[in-house]
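Holo model, adenosine-5'-diphosphate. Inputs:
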Amino acid sequence: MAETLLKIEGIVKRFGGLVALNNVGLSINKGEIYGLIGPNGAGKTTLFNVLTGLYMPDEGTFTFAGKDLFRAKPHVVVGTGIARTFQNIRLFAEMTALENVMVGRHIRTKAGGLGAILRNKGTMDEERAIEAKARELLEYVGISSVADERARNLSYGHQRRLEIARALATEPTLLALDEPAAGMNPRETSDLKDLMAKIRNDGVTILLIEHDVKLMMGLCDRIAVLDYGKKIAEGVPEMVRNDPKVIEAYLGVAHA
Amino acid sequence: MDIFVQQILNGLVLGSIYALIALGYTMVYGIMGLINFAHGEVVMFGAMVTISVISALMNAGINLPGPLLVLIGLMISIPACMLLGFVIERVAYRPLRNAPRLAPLITAIGLSIVLQQVAILIWGRNYIPFPPILSHDTITILGASITKLQVIIIVLCLVIMAGLLVMVERTKLGRAMRATSQNPSVAGLMGVSVNKVISATFVIGSGLGAIAGVMVATNYDQAHYYMGFLIGLKAFTAAVLGGIGNLGGAVAGGILLGIIESLGAGYIGTLTGGFLGSNYQDIFAFMVLIMVLIFRPSGLLGEKMADRA
Amino acid sequence: MTMVNNKKLGLFAVSAIAVVVLPFLVGGALGNSWVRILDFALLYVMLALGLNMVVGFAGLLDLGFIAFYAVGAYSYALLSSPHFGLHLPFYITIPIGAVLAAFFGILLGTPVLRLKGDYLAIVTLGFGEIIRIFINNLNAPINITNGPQGVNLIDPIQVGGFSFGKSFELFGQTFSNVYLYYYFFLVLTVGVVIMAWRLQHSRIGRAWVALREDDIAAAAMGINIRNIKLLAFALGALSGGVAGGLFSAFQGFVSPESFSLIESIMILAMIVLGGMGNIAGVVLGAVMLTIAPEILRSTIGPLQMAVFGKTIVDPENARMLLFGLAMVVMMLVRPEGAWPSKRRRMEFQDAKKGVSHG
Ligand SMILES: Nc1ncnc2c1ncn2[C@@H]1O[C@H](COP(=O)(O)OP(=O)(O)O)[C@@H](O)[C@H]1O
Ligand SMILES: [Mg+2]
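Output:
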């Protein structure tokens, strides 16, 4: 049996009267690429927000790498090893690409106010290491040529990659990507696919939301389907694709 | 017990005035999402202009009954303050509608300073007494006393506020205001002239502010160039207390704050064993503000807001 | 490259010399009262840099900053004056005031952690007023602060047996103590500048910018939002506390009047008009806003006499009027301030074009 990295059970998240997540449970194994699909408004992003501590779930359990993360603060979640990107890119727009990634190193470094003021050797060494690691990550995602550009000025594809680099800077064991291919052309999408495969090969588990079914089928080890806040299917891509409930959820939306 | 009833009555008077001013803050906030820092100064101008008009009439030897004099004063100060509100929005806020939020806040503070200094230029730095033209007869309720004037203040506030609520619910302008506060760009697409709605909001809020200013001046028998600051701050607190952007909330918040404040001032000595006296009355508003924002940032009647991530 | 460096070095040397000889030039030409104004300018630079850590770096709008100045000033006043008969030396009272101010910074920061923008501004404003009301009223039943009368006869700074309280002799010439305070404040100001600059270019400074630009993304990157906000409040308050203690010693007298809302606004205006987030801009703003009103004060009266033959507008009135107008006009014409940081300038330009963030 594969080793379970993340496990949630019975997660409920309500917004006033709306039940955005209704009793959702799933488990992600170490080293896999786990896909999450579902029509718009199904609750995928909400689940991401719950998993990364941005939203407080109302009910359920949530463990990750053996630790209880139910209602944990975002920085605790990141410290435990979950990093994410956002569906509507949220870079620090006025910072350079390099600085964005350097912010990602925050949780893995520790220089405080006093160190910053005194500039002792430990602090300066750490600062250099932060920059070196950030440059390395820009290289890794293939955008080192724009290291000193402001994030705002980067092309859409580069911004998506920069968000991934920034998330990787936190040294995650699980990388959660919310529609990373949205708005990309086929070439960019295929490059992104290669990047995700590379990240997985380097030992990072991936949780992926994407609409591009072809991409998902080719890339994911397992896929879960959300509809109206409920998980309606889960399994290997082949099985999910032929599940009548999934077909209905998608067709129902497409032809409504 | 007598103290209790007395403080409740005092609180009601104070609170209905806060409510009237709070409406000005909350309407602007609801529609533009900004705190009109200069609103307190509009209130001050309302009081000052009214007193000037009354004094001028009296000096001219025109002998009219007190209430009529006040009414004439209001008929001049209300339009004057409306014009002031209109100009404030045009000068300090409209050019900065897309600027970072700090910018309109700074212009508003700058404008507050300018208005205070203009008031000093016109009326000087001293307290200006309200002409002794209104009766201060009292009536007794449950062992507590209240002046007839204060009863009129409360009733008038309630009537005006009810009128405003009806206006917002029923009239075309009211509908346009509600649409704009929900989504300015959609309202614009639906044919609402957003600029006109915003101007109207400032004008109405300033008119209410002028009336409130006169009430403050009659209640304390004086006016002062700096009076707008504290009363404005408290009225804003009231708006936050009730849930900013929510008209009913501003009314409830204003009255509640008035009562909290006067009960607090009445009992703080007993509560602290004489250590703190009623000169600490002013801290209650701020304490309440901080408490509300900690425990219920959306206010008593406001909807819960969540950050969209 | 070296040419640029040489040029920079030259510029630095020239400004360093200028700053060192400045009080003698000013004192010689205009008299000691203007050196005193320079001293105040330095105090305001420290204050503005402290507030800039909160507003400029971390993006937390604080309208009650003067409260921390008050805490520092009163700590010094109560511990080094005849009021309680305590005469602790400055190297004890100033740190006590600074730490106490930082403590108050955290006290204020904790309840307002969830607030943003205007809401935060109003609550901090209320907090500043609460502190002032307490200082104003804590003279009964136990006299702690001496109420509205304030505290008198505060000890000057004393180093060894040498007091900053009186004038001193150098090369046979007598100099007023305002010169001593100038250099003392200058050293501390340079210290605060270095501190602010190093913080800005550190892991902490980056976290502050991240917080300012997008707090949700910052949290999702593992920044502990609570701690990083509290650190900004505490460090800002600390600088304010130090400046407050110095103010007490320098002035020899404190009263609640010195800590009213308008002072908080003035310091905020220094930052905004100078160029928020940019240390050089903030220094410029603080100096401008300390000196310009004094120039106005000393010219408006005589100017009116010369032109109209009498005083039409009270100079204090005219000064504040111009100040308010300057705030409005500056925001309308150049909302990014006189000398903004590059990043800020970009933010404002984007805002003008109506581009939305992220
Ligand atoms: N902060 C929020 N407040 C209220 N409703 C929300 C919030 N976030 C998400 N929702 C609602 O939850 C539902 C699921 O949204 P989301 O998770 O974004 O869907 P997906 O990512 O699958 O398209 C939608 O109806 C959305 O409007
Ligand atoms: Mg989504």
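The beta strands of chain C are 80-81, 86-87, 158-159, 162-163, 168-170, 173-175. The first strand of chain C starts at residue 80 and ends at 81.
Archived with the compound record.
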